[in-house]
């Protein structure tokens, strides 16, 4: 057995047990330097691999800003914006072109496509990078779907750049995907009452009409509440949808103006409806013995009955018990016409 520092030409009596090493190799001492260089290279490669793993870990933890090719990045699986503000986007492009991208976007490794990414927030900055033909600065972080939603919602709420109706649509999409109210509340930093009202608004106002109106960033939630309430009347709803296709509406460049235009249209329709509503004269009847007085006021979808007498309560009870019979007689009369 050769020791670590023995001459490679000197052997022991038990040659079958001899192990070749860098120092007792049959290639001789002239190759020691080459083997040492190889060993050094392997060590360097190991160090580089460890460094790469460390960088990869830091990337996935979101502690490193990198530059990514925008072509490798896809939109969030949850939409949170309606349309695009062309003027504001042009200003963003100019700012990034002149001063660079100061704030990175947040992306996560795409959950279904290897080598690709998904935006958590920063869609406008990504679009600006595409327009400018440059890489986008990003933080890459491993996130679950729920963590993705929380980060996206909280970032947009903190920046206060989402309008009420955009948040309402975001809420509806999360609700339809089966995410619980607690997650929605945390993502948007609102309470249960606001979440319920948001869902009510986007359920009462047709989706296509919301898109036609746009984000209306300067219009508060009260206007959307009022519009939703008005559109519960199906006739009004159809009239408003038809009005949204007119040139008067479509030529308005501001979404806030379009929302105001619909209110003006609704007010005009309501006023005309009130002016043309047919209010029937009250019908009155008094029993021959003057013991009971009856009055009926009829409206489009409502009839008000009033009885006056000392025993009006008893007569009302008796009439209530006869309603099934009276209604059947009424139906028979209608069918015989």
TrEMBL record:
GO CC, alphabetical: chromosome
GO BP, sorted A to Z: chromosome segregation
Polar residues bias spans: 1-14
Region Disordered, residue ranges: 1-26
NCBIfam families: parB_part, partition_RepB
Name of this protein: Plasmid partitioning protein RepB
Limits of the ParB-like N-terminal domain: 66-157
Pfam family, one: RepB
An annotated Gene Ontology molecular function: DNA binding
Domain of life assignment: Bacteria
């Amino acid at each position: 057995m050769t020791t670590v520092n023995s001459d490679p030409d000197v052997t022991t009596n038990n040659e079958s047990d001899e192990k070749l090493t860098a120092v007792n190799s049959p290639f001789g001492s002239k190759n020691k330097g080459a083997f040492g260089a190889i060993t050094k290279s392997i060590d360097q490669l190991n160090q580089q691999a460890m460094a790469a793993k460390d960088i990869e870990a830091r990337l996935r933890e979101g502690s490193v800003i990198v530059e990514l090719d925008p072509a490798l990045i896809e939109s969030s699986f949850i939409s949170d914006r309606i349309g695009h503000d062309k003027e504001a986007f042009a200003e963003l492009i100019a700012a990034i072109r002149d001063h660079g991208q100061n704030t990175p976007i947040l992306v996560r490794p795409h959950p279904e496509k290897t080598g690709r990414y998904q935006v958590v927030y920063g869609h406008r900055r990504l679009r600006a990078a595409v327009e400018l033909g440059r890489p986008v600065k990003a933080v890459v972080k491993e996130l679950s779907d729920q963590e993705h939603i929380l980060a996206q919602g909280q970032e947009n709420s903190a920046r206060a750049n989402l309008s009420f109706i955009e948040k309402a649509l975001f809420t509806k999409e999360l609700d339809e995907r089966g995410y619980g109210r607690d997650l929605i509340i945390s993502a948007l930093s609102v309470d249960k009452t606001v979440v319920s009202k948001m869902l009510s608004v986007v359920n009462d106002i047709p989706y296509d009409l919301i898109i036609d109106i746009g984000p209306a960033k300067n219009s508060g939630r009260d206007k959307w509440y009022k519009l939703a309430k008005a559109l519960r009347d199906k006739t009004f709803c159809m009239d408003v949808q038809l009005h949204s296709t007119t040139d008067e509406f479509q030529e308005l460049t501001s979404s806030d103006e379009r929302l105001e235009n619909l209110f003006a249209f609704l007010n005009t329709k309501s006023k005309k409806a009130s002016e043309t509503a047919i209010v029937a004269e009250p019908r009155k009847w008094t029993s021959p013995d003057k013991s009971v007085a009856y009055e009926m006021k009829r409206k489009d979808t409502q009839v008000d009955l009033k009885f006056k007498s000392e025993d009006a309560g008893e007569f009302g009870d008796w009439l209530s018990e006869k309603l099934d019979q009276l209604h059947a007689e009424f139906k028979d009369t209608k069918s015989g016409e």
